[in-house]
Structures are given as structure tokens and as C-alpha cells.
Sequence to fold (229 residues):
Amino acid sequence: MNTDIKKLEETIQYTFQDEKLLKHALTHPSYSGEMRWERERSNQRLEFLGDAVLELIVSDYLYRAHQKLDEGELTRKRASLVFEAALTVCAKDIGLGQYIYLGRGEDTSDGREKPSILSDTFEALIGAIFLDGGYQEAKRFIYAHIIEDIDELSLLRDGKSLVQEYTQRQEGMSLRYNTYSLQSPDHLKQFCSELYIDEELIAKGQGRSKKTAEQDAALQAIKILGIKK
Fold:
């Protein structure tokens, strides 16, 4: 774990007035539980707030940028940005995993790479920025780390379809996912998905549901195979 959170502030180009808020955002429930702290000292409440702030700012952007789209189309576009795989990519781009306070069990089981932990912490970070610096700072952060990469992130939602189309273009090529539950507490339930092409393991993914685990595996396969939309 990297305890030099000043480096994280440099990366996100935001300095917290209240450093405790940043540390709160980085505190996973497994750590607060291990420390026997009150439940509210984990980042779950900040995650709840950050999720709402993120949805509002992305909705505002899409409403202004796509004035001819109806409600359904705007909702689909928003869904392609505000979901676990996309937020995981954003979290990895700023190296967020190395700063998270994790319990020993999560830390030793690659918790810093788990999509659910990364995406939740990313939303908690948005919530902390909103509380510390207000709407405009949260908006600046979201534009810099999500909306500027909107085309790439939108691609992630279609990952499984893209991999399927790739295999269908190759005569006789087979595709399958082997998805299973990992041993973890119910409230931190995780799934792993292995993506095979012609029985060769191409990529692995993780998520809080079978669907998100398969999406993550497809995303990794897209990168490995160089698949384009």
C-alpha cells in the first residue's frame, strides 16, 4: 500500500482542504471492520453520495451534448459510462488501488485489482471531492477522468458483443466463459470469469455479479486481441 496520499492528490490535481475526507474515501469496509471501527467509518456512505453526483454530472453533460436524443437514448449513453467496468478503468488510470485501506484478507487476495473495490472507491473519491470542494470541483474531476475518455469508456459496455463478433468472423472459432463465485463474505461477494477462445484461456475478469465479471473478462480480451469497434 502507498501511504503517500499527496501523490494521489498530485495525480488527480486536487488538494483536499480536509485530508480526513480523502482517507475516509479510501477506507474499504474490510479495513474498518478489521479495525473494529463503526460501520460509517468505511467509504460506503461516500460511495452512495459520489454515485449520485456522478450520475447528475454525466446526465447534465449528455443532455447538453446530445440535444436531439430522446430520454431512452440518453439513458443508454449514461449507462455506458456509469457502470463498474468503466469506473474500474478510470480508477486504474489514476493508480487508485495502491492507496486503498484494505483488510488483510482482501489485500492478500488481489483486492487492489478487484473491479468492485476500485469502482466503489472511485465513486467514494467523487463524493469526497464534492463535500470538500463543491460541485464545480467534482465536475472538473469527472470531466478530466471520465468524460474526456467518453468514446473509449462507451466501448466497454459492448465488450461481450465485440468479442462475440470477432469470433464469429473466424470460421469454426469457439467462444466460452467459465464464470464462478469466489470465496468472500456475502456483502463483498465476487465472481471470476475466464474467457476462452478455441479452449485457450485469453483473459480473466472479476465483478460483483456474473455479468460484470464476464464484461471485465471481455474488456481484457479486447485489449489483448486488439479488437476495434
